[in-house]
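Archive entry: two folds, one per protein. Generate the first.
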Amino acid sequence: MSKLTVTVPDIGGAENVEIIEINVAVGDSVNADQDLLVLETDKATMEIPCPQAGKVQALLVKVGDKVSEGSAILELESADSADTEQNNAEQISAEPAAAAQEPAPAAPAAEINAGSAADSVESLIDLVVPDLGGASEVTVIELCARPGDTLSADDSLIVLESDKASMDIPAPQGGTLKELLINIGDKVKEGQVYGRLLTQEQPGSAASAQQTSAQPALNKAVENAPAPTAAAVSAVPVAAAPVVSETTNSAEKTDIHNVYAGPSSRRLARQLGVDLTKVKGTGDRSRITKDDIRDYVKALVKQAESGVAAVTSGAGIPAVPAVDFAQFGEIELQLMSKIKKVTAANMSRNWLNVPHVTQFDEADITDLDAFRASMKAEAEKQGVKLTPLPFLIKAAASALTLEPSFNVSLHHDGEHMVQKHYVHIGIACDTPNGLMVPVLRDADKKGIYQIAREASELIEKARNGKLKPNEMQGGCFTISSLGAMGGTGFTPIVNAPEVAIMGVSKAQIKPQWNGKEFVPRNMLPLAVSYDHRAINGADCGRFFTTLVALLSDVRRLIL
């Protein structure tokens, strides 16, 4: 193991370039070509890669520092450095003594220049759309690089989209992008040339064989030139070329290119599927960093888990656009309670997932009200307040027993229906904290007094915030009553996994024809919403007819 000082490589002659991001910390193990830090000039950002694998021993710079070519940036503990030095020493000791004593003849300047030119040969290659898996034409949806960008092998160049999938098209090898022949929205097909890449080929490679054979004089001069000594080799600085992403003022730039972010941040965003236009940058001059992207993804996951996302969007439906209400007048932001946020998420989920149908009817409760009034004194002796609610609960429980098609739930496997042999009724309550639905269990097995007593206790606990979780679970059917508030009808939302809910509005005295004349009757508006996946219209017709008959003649409740 040995210590290597990593310096800033050739950065195109730029001086005093600012460090805007450091991607490693002391103690990190890094790989060759891994990004160490990001520099920024007036026209471009560039990533400085690690020349070889190792472990970061010390950082010699910090964000905001100015560096130039050759500036030391960190110390790296590298096994490769020690091995290289040992190999160089062995090579020197193996040279003949005579060769070591005789001075090497100086090579003419022209020959030295020729040798440098032979080290790498520039080649301009066509970038061709690869195999598209049988797709005839696909759409270009993103340009990941611009002419002038320095690319590594497998860096994304463009993104294509077919009817079924999107695909990144990578660079076949490292080089500089010279031109792009396509724009966003263009249709391309397999084999089409979409750009050109300037590459650096080593002598002897297939791409440079033709150019090398065309220069016999130059090759001969290079072959006759003396080999450099080990000391000369070690004196030559070696560094990988930085990846540069230039920002231009072209009017054709898309929104994604207008975002202020470096290449590494853009690459991370592509990997995570993040739209950079929606990320808020916290870096210098609002630059988007990798941490900003990670924080954005974490926030989305947390939002999805909490159910907040379901309030504003869901099932692929576009979200409601944000509005600055302060521009219209004075406002105040009030934090939603947890119950209200959960209720909003549940309502959105139920409305989006359940295909609702609502059926309306009226129940003649004239006789029910008369009976209730006659039992008022006796009920007070029993310690209960006899309101219409206990009768509604009892009637609903009896109707669910007589029409079991309503007392079901859809199984999560999508293959079965759950038939319930118990009858638990949910009671929607308006509380200071928001809407809550306590559940009265085994309503079909209880009398009116017991139902009145237990319902009153549950409602009181809901309003005082003392309901336990198990007291709000297991409902088969929910009753939501707005009778005291007025209204002639409304469409309640099914409280899934239940498949039906009944909305109760304010009773009114209406004229009803008895066959001979119109008589005043107390009519109660009812609305039943149901999940059309589990219940059809005929099922609801039978259930509703039964329920209305039970409320119209309370004697049926004892049958």
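Generate the second and append.
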Amino acid sequence: MSILQLFTLLGALGMFLYGMNLMSSGLQKAAGDRLRGFLSAMTSNPFKGVMTGLGVTSIIQSSSATTVMVVSFVNAGLLTLNQAIGVIMGANIGTTVTAWMVSWLGFKADISILAVPLMLLGFLFSNSKKGNRKNIGELIVGFSLLFLGLSFMKESVPDLRQTPEVLNFVTSWASHGFGSTLLFLAFGTILTLVLQSSSATMAITLIMLSMGWIPFNMACAMVLGENIGTTITANIAASVGNTQAKRAAMSHTIFNLFGVVWALILFQPFLRLVGYVTETLFGLPNPAADGFVVSSSSSPEGTAALYGLSMLHTMFNVINTLLLVWFTKLIAKAVSWIIRAPESQEKEIFKLKYISAGPLATPELCVEQAFDEIIHFAQISKNGALYAKEAINESDSDKFETLRSKLVKYEEISDRIEYEIATFLNGVSAEEISESTSIKVKSMYKIIGELESLGDSGETISRILSRKNIHKKTFDADSIKNLNIMADSVISAYDVMIANLTSAHKGELENISNAYNAEERLNTLRNNFRDAVIEDIDSGEKNYQTSVYYIDIMNAFERMGDFMINVSQDLERGFIHK
């Protein structure tokens, strides 16, 4: 094998992987929002969850993207861990569609003949001004590159039949009985880890099988290894995530490891079953029969081997799902026991919930995660306003200091969350994104800045109150009453802002008149209360220094209203379809 041939093989592999990612990316961009809605609506029981995971993964050709969407829904409370496990089981079945697509279109129909003309069609679509047509163009180009890459891989792989000694060396690894099975299983696992794609490993296994390098049973062992490798990848991605992300990844591992164990124990009977089903359904030679040899991928034996391997992949996941779908609650308990929640739930709620489970397959879905995190950020910020109201009403110095330290802590948390979301959005912006997504990202940058300022406001109020206490000043009953009215109006404005964020995330925000009304009420209250206290100062009814603290808090509350109307205005600019 020459150096040029080696680099051609590696380049073809890269083209295949890039095509797979591009195709999946285009599919997710074209159908991402609808798939998210479908995913949240169709998981009321484990069986519906399995069918949902199967359907979504079959469409977007990425079980990883499906899994990450599932994890985000678990964190949002839209899915329980039990429901998520059902969807992950279905995603495992859905990913077998890729194997059938490759074995049929890539080896039998040879779709690569049409790949170049299809790229022209993809190019024309990608130049369209309509975003969805661009996404479809990306899908077509990715589809073409995938099968061009597969075609080049088949052509650049050397024919070992021309060098019998090399072929004998390779095939000798398959002559050690069960030890060979474990060896090829490990090889499939490692190859999947290196390539970070079980679909690519499946394509390589199909090529090795069609070229006669390895027998059918060893190819089956590699497929089992691929199922282990893909779970390790998911656990690595979830290692930086929160508790629920790690539990979802661990449930995937338990599911696949259990399947590999029973498949190894029943390896020969399972292969005979796969061979029988392949022979019966397609009228082809039994690939699991003794003396079965592949002469070429175009021969009946070659077709039987390719279809048999895809059938094994499908039957493995279907049987495994049928066995374990009854035990989703038990699996959920097991992963919850293995991965314990942090002792302090107070600390847990301040961690990022939605953008810490590893990268998504497409920037568009990353934006969905970031928006979930922004809504979570707004809810945390509202807690700061509630503590500020408590601090105003607290006369006990020790309890006040506890509240003051919480407000300081919330200010630090706001800074950290803003930084982490901005860092995540920076990564999204570095990718190729659509114009509409770019507008959304710019709006999201502004929104997190306003939310961070809201976090600062709570700490500002705590400092004003501290200075008042140091100078031994107290507010009278009317002042406390007015400050409570102002605080309640701020909290109501928070509810309006969070409602607008949620509506925008669902694509249902039509106008922000509610936000303008909330902001106008805060302005009116601040002006009326300020004018009244100034009159009281002039008449000598109020202490000047105490009144200054009172006005400063009123102004801080009014500024919080300004930050919140800015958030809704940013939503109007970036998320309302005009």
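Annotation attached to the second fold: The chain has two domains: 3-338, 362-575. Residues 343-349, 357-361 have pLDDT under 50 and may be disordered.
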